[in-house]
Fold these 3 entries.
Entry 1:
Amino acid sequence: MKRHLDLRPALLLLAVGFAAQAQTVLIRAGRLVDPDKGTASTAQQILVENGVIKAVGANVAAPAGAQVVDLSDRTVLPGFMDAHTHLCMTFVTQGGHGLHELIQRSLAATVLETTTRRALIGVKNARDMLESGFTTVRDVGNAGNYADTELRKGIEEGMFPGPTIINAGRIITPLGGQFHGLQPERPDLGEPEYLYADTPDQMREAVRKNVLFGAKVIKIVIDDQPYLYSVEDVKTLVTESARAGVKVAAHAATEAGVRVAAEGGVASIEHAYTASTEALQLMKKKGVYLVGTDFSRSSAEAMGMADYHQKVVERLKRARAVGVLQAYGTDIIFPVQGETRGTLSIEGITSFQEAGYTPAEIIRFMTTSAAKLIGVDGQRGAIRPGMAADIVAVPGDPLADASALRKVSFVMKDGKIIKR
Ligand SMILES: [Zn+2]
């Protein structure tokens, strides 16, 4: 029995309605990547009608009046996915002084920035992500008072371009959120950035509040305070979320946190920076995705957290040996001169390259694997008939050298050409 009003079919119709204004397009692909197989076919055509892929093959004819897009000198792939974004937050760091500064900046954003500003930041970051080839993101909170829901709706209604967004609303945490050192006269300063929930009743209420106000995934923080959520707490949150048809993403940076999250049955664990090999094996056994937010060397340095880069590369090597499920997720929250949110996000692949992953593995984490975790694998993440036309192209051969993924030169979103 359905316990909530499901508006998704109506929204899908709305999205298709906008896409229907797009012309019929035939794309000529020099090479077309199949992420699941890790292979590419040459000289393929992709027919797109009303925002949806109608046909794919070597002998697909262009219907009369179709726009032909010649990408015969390029490699075509499904649009990329980022399973860990914070589109409605951009810190201005001052030289990068590490984790402490990040927390202070986050608190400052909560206190000083209006939800309106947070939404405008989201519009900018969403556009930049799309330009770099990210056509779907799972946005895991830190959006003030539901700026992420308005951002998602604006994109779905065609008000401005951006990726498909699966948003988390407010992050559910124990008292204090992720702010360390809140003073006892103002413990409330962590809200609305966070949604405090300490008792089982508060946890169920928090999930319901998020779903009511537009969340499509629930984000919880396990271990950012001296008082961790327990396995029972996580099970309460996961059960209530499942009743509403949404999955749970858990922030867990420590060994203890990763174990609690995995035993509690979350869909993904975010960060797991210091997870032991045994904890990674537990995740594999439980079918929990690792969304490692594996900062590139330059990103880690920009935040004053250079040591995190070596940590994640080392952890990525162990995760590969264990064979834990993975989805690409970036966690970029800061600006760098001359870069965009999109270029910083795609740079995260360098950590996987350093850890010895093959280009095919990296592409899979960014497409079909991420689509499964995010829950859009029926509509997005692959190029085949019936799927939404989220398509990108790069020069060269990304299956030989993943660095080509950083040079996206064509983007189609729901059948609309965004960049060419
Ligand atoms: Zn994050």
Note: The mean pLDDT is 93.
Entry 2:
Amino acid sequence: MKIKVLGSSGAELPGHRPPSYLLNGKILFDAGSLTNILPTKDLLKIEHIFITHTHLDHIMGIPFLADNLMFSKRRHKTKIIGIPPVIEAIRRSVLDGSIWPDFTAIPNTHEAILELKELEPGRSIKIGVYMITPYEVNHPVPAAGYLVEDGRGRRFFYTGDTGPTDATWEQIGGKQIHCLIIDVSFPNRMEEFAIKTGHLTPQLLKKEILKIKSLPEKIYITHPKPQYLKTIKTQLQHLKLRNVGLLRNGSTVIV
Ligand SMILES: [Zn+2]
Ligand SMILES: [Zn+2]
């Protein structure tokens, strides 16, 4: 599996873009960076967008994507998929016609640009050779990470935003995660704030990794706040964990 990093930051600033990960050009995980990165021909290839939660830095590409697709020679509906409270909030707060047109009914409900689709936590959906399953994580709003397995049994898990969690790892159980993309937003001294806001620090990351039954081959960090990036990088190195790395915009992760 090839995962292109469109954005991996916990904020938007010049040189820092909110999270979006594109699997083999077709399936997107979170929509923090989208129309500002990809040309229309690439946007047209994306058929499914999995959303971890409704915080703006994870969904803000959706309204602009719909607007761009409206004026292209589109052949498919783009499906926005998430756990039920996430889909409900997008329907109620983003595509309700008050801040942006309702693209689930434009130009008409039959040929609409977007389709919203609910996926229960723990239930899998098969898209091509990929089996994709949401697992709830710990964040102040309903949120789920996604476990993705390809036809060869290779797996990655993208947490989206999460604080410390036991339940997520228990539910994933003994399944080997080959590549883990996990939240580390704040430095160690902000542990209390990180826990309160549903995020991790390098030290908290170490504790999470010990909860996973089989150690991932590679661990990548998503969502670091740019203001603390240097400190986070140093503190990650001090963990002395093998195969932990920060992500770079535009790079590709191979699973
Ligand atoms: Zn969040
Ligand atoms: Zn976020």
Note: The two ends are 5 Å apart (CA to CA).
Entry 3:
Amino acid sequence: MTTKKVYIISHSHWDREWYMAYEQHHMRLVALMDDLLHLFKTNPDFHSFHLDGQTIAIDDYLEVRPEKREEVQAAITAGKLKIGPFYILQDDFLISSESNTRNMLVGLEESRKWGDPVMLGYFPDTFGNMGQAPQMMKEGGIEAAAFGRGVKPTGFNNVVINDEKYTSQFSEMWWEGADKSKIFSLLFANWYSNGNEIPVEKEAAQAFWKEKLADAEQFTSTDHILMMNGVDHQPVQMDVTDAIKVANDLYDDYEFIHSSFDEYLEAVMNDVPADLSTVSGELTSQETDGWYTLANTASARIYLKQKNTDVQRQLENITEPLATMAFDVTGEYPHDQLRYAWKLLMQNHPHDSICGCSVDEVHREMITRYDKALEVGKFLASEAVESLTASIDTSLFPTDSKPFVVFNTAGSAKTGTIETEIEWKRLPFSQGVPEELYAQLKNETLPELTVIDAKGQAVAAEILSHEVRFNYDLPKDAFRVPFMAIYVKVRLVVTDMPAVSWESLALTVGQNTTSALPTIVSEADNRLENEFLHVKVESNGQLTVTDKTTGITYPNVLTYENVGDIANEYIFKQPEGDQAIYAHDFPATTTVAINTTKIGEITLIQTLMIPVSADETLAEEMKAVVEMRQRKAQRSKELAPFTLTTKIRLEQGSRQLKFSTHFDNQMKDHRLRVLFPTNITTDKHYAESIFEVVERPNGVSASWENPTNPQHQHSFVNVQDATHGMTVSNYGLNEYEILADNTTIALTLHRSVGELGDWGYFPTPEAQCMGEQTVAFALAFHGADDQNRTFHDGQNFQIPFTVAQTSVHNGRWAPKAAYLTIDSSAYALTALKRKEHQTEIVTRGFNLSNTASAPLEIKISGYTPTRCTLIETPHEKPLSAILEPAEINSLLWKKSASVND
Ligand SMILES: [Zn+2]
């Protein structure tokens, strides 16, 4: 008889913050770590403890007990405390591609300062798994992953249906990524608590093992059985080694050992059967009833997702690119400050944090972290811009003009509006009393002003207004300088500004240009029109949009839908029989807000009458912890006005119709979406996910019972057929659904719920998201072969232009130039940064197609590239001019030896 081996791994799944505030969990972590250090010293049989795959727990402990550093180091060195490979345990889908990357990069680096990390991609509690994880893990040198969700184990008693891609007979399987990278994977088929609280008392132990071994053996493919001794915030089982002795006494045919993932993985990977099944792509519990996929966390507390977008875009697409360019001027890069900002951002990325599924205290602290990270990012960006603008030649502008430089820091050409303030005249406090300086400037009459480019050509711009206000300079080498100044507000549209480029302009005295071109809005019939789109705002507030390139007309665009929601932060559940309320059934009014040859904007106001909340039943059902599917609550009969104010903007040269919707939410327990019927009937669609544009089926699996099928996205979702398609982009709106009609894109704008959900009753009044809310999204169309343009525009919708005023001066850089050039419409840039702690440039991007390769040529003047991995180490693959399907492409750029700048 073969002896089966049972690997007992002690651990605690450490949600850093969740159903209690961070510090409540934190103080318990201190107790756990104290216990562990005590146990390591006093019980030589205690093999090791798995610290949940996240290094931040060490920082959190040492913040309270800095004197324990050496003891922690000794425990790690001795192999007692098993750490890494990640910084935090993230939600894959709600954080950006770069955030997922930095989590591994920082986690591995910090682990290695202590010792050897556990090389296991650890996703025990993640709400589904991203399709590029296999490629990403391999790039980090990690050959195995473990997760608790995403795949349905079928076990020995179930028939495995071959065409079910997301089931596995075993808890062990291969996982193939979008690019065909394969890693070994473990499903915690009986959860990561299957060996929790092992009894020491003999009879209880007998009963425990009888059940637990049978459960595990139903799924395990080898004679190596994994028992996870721990669960959420579980204190360490102090007598686990005694319990193991008892187990060994009870069984002859099993050997029980206190073990680690290192040992277990080595054993199981050497022994897996040849017919182990393979799951592929993203694992989002597709083969379930659809209720507990937890995808509706994408619409819980949308204000968090918007803030997350602010900070991610600031660090990834503004601060890092600007600082990377500025290094060529200063020879300095703010590595430490950026690491600090990234860590603050990533502290908001654990699955219970960014998912918005914690108590209010947790999410309040997140806002502070976002604000801090954003301020660091803004400061570093302004420092970089100051260095850059000082080196850009503005000497061609008139000496009395006010030059300013526009930067497009996005990875592709961008069209959009800039609204900025230019300081026209300044009086320092050293020249007088503030109120007199104020009065003096206030009494000045401004000459007619215009904007010119470096060739002296007038640029179409609107001089909107001006005001006098206090401001100050903080010189690097002297005391602060307060002053009064006249600020002139300028608005202009920039068309097709190349990727990572700048252009110098100046505000100067001169006649503002007038154009003979037609204005964008035709007021008589509520129409916006440019060279690409024709948009009619119908009397009911819906839009009829014609894509002039294909000639196709899309009716009933911008349909607002409101329904009740009686579930929680994790799950959306409409009350039984609840009928949707549509904005187009209520009166609509429109006004023209902007109408020039460059910008047209119509303001649409619709006031719906909607229920103020759910009825009283819901409060009782929540208190009684009635599972959301069993709830009988309805929406209240009491109605109140709910006003949607939509700004609909079209710019000259833009293929995107841009929307900004504002509302003051005073209602509870409801969801607001905007619907875009595509009139394209298809069985699949595309959405931006982590390092991929993922193809997803519109339909659901046979086992799916949830009447909705919510999905995650980053900046866009697309529906297309062979000849044309529609792309809906967004700013921090991560949830969409393709409706059961197989043609309509629904974008969630707002979701109000009153409780956390899950294992008890945790009221979350702030998850109702009361008060003023503004959401932004955009619409674009494409023909047969230019979908990538709409994808780039979708990404760029989240990346504003950077504008900085400067003086008239000589400089070694041209007034208008591109820092890098990318020749590939399929390549989406995610990072332009300096290598961690070093001076080389790192660029990273991915293929917008998972099925087609594409040519790729990137150039940075004065630099020479080689391939590198996600963690910035040399890559085994050589440099290639071809971007493979689903490839994540990282390049390391060294200063060319021959180039003399
Ligand atoms: Zn968790």
Note: The radius of gyration is 29 Å.
